[in-house]
Write a structure and sequence with these properties.
Strands 2-1-3-4-5 form a 5-stranded parallel β-sheet, with helices on both faces. The chain is α/β, with parallel strands linked by helices. The protein has one domain: Flavodoxin domain (Rossmann fold, 3-Layer(aba) Sandwich).
Length: about 190
Amino acid sequence: MTEKYEVAVIVGSLRADSYSSRLAQALISVAPASLTFRSVGIATLPLYNQDLDENPPAPYTEFRNAISRAAAVLFVTPEYNRSVPGGLKNAIDVGSRPYGRNAFDAKPAAVVSQTPGAMGGFGANHAIRQSLVFLNMPTMQQPEAYFGHSDKLFGPGGTIANEGTRAFLTKFMQAFADWVAIHAGT
């Protein structure tokens, strides 16, 4: 029997029906059965403030606990101004603090980025990876996943419009499942 791993899915967009949310759902729909998923919202997280570490607000604690329970983390994000959306960076800061209690520590990760423009969120993808190196998260290097023209990725009902894209998402999620199996709990 294959071991199952819970993956925390963090979507970098705060918009309810964002392209990143749709892409996260598409990734989940083609994932191997060895992975289960829990969406971990970031919209209600107050800005990180070290003064609150002694008595953290409930959203900080809930977020940190959700990350701690997961075996791995999947980041799906848009790109804002060639970098990470502010809400996602804040979530990374909240989860990694207070110093010495990094909820992300040693959790395998993957990053998927998208943008309606042509660049596919390359800047955001690599900016997130910078933080993940510091957080000691083994982050899957290949295949890389950058989606340009994300406004054209989806057909009716949120389905992936292109079979080649669907095949790539399936390959990506199989690689991520393999990555998680190798790195979870190490």
